[in-house]
Amino acid sequence: MTTPSRLTVLAGPTAVGKGTLAAYVREHHPEVWLSVSATTRRPRPGEVEGVHYHFVSDEEFDRMVEQGELLEWAVVHGRAKYGTPRGPVEAVLATGRPALLEIDLQGARQVRASMPEAFFVFLAPPSWEELVRRLVGRGTEDEEERAARLDTARIELAAAEEFDVTLVNDDVRRAAEDLVSWTRTPVPATKRD
Length: 193
What we know:
It is built from 8 helices and 9 strands. By secondary structure, it is an alpha/beta fold. It has a single domain (7-192), classed as Rossmann fold.
């Protein structure tokens, strides 16, 4: 019988590099399954349907919520909806394969409520100034969107203590390798009972 694996949840403020770490893991550690979130926002340049996100309409997203098909979901930055399809996560965990969710703080809190045995990793920037530089540098949001994201980031940074561990994203390779090592930690027997 296969021993179920423990879900690892990666969360942190906007522009901290969650997507960059997930891309590194996807490329260098194919043994780690990465959940693909559903979102109602428009694709950014280079994002691929089914790889980076499942891009859905508001109506489809609402249907998924109503049918209980999402492990977690939230309206992020007061704009787009994001959520994690439940079925694929549960199926992968049952096989014993390491699984990783890259989500926002609201989603991590929902997952903690429904899957307290998961391992929660807070991704922090090296400094506030670096976070601002990364957000501005990626050039994917207008001034109003950046301001909203930075306001949210201030609040999210204060939530680091809610997580099992804080990982500073000052070196992508090192941070990703640390993250992968945590995905391989088995579920303690007491947490599976």
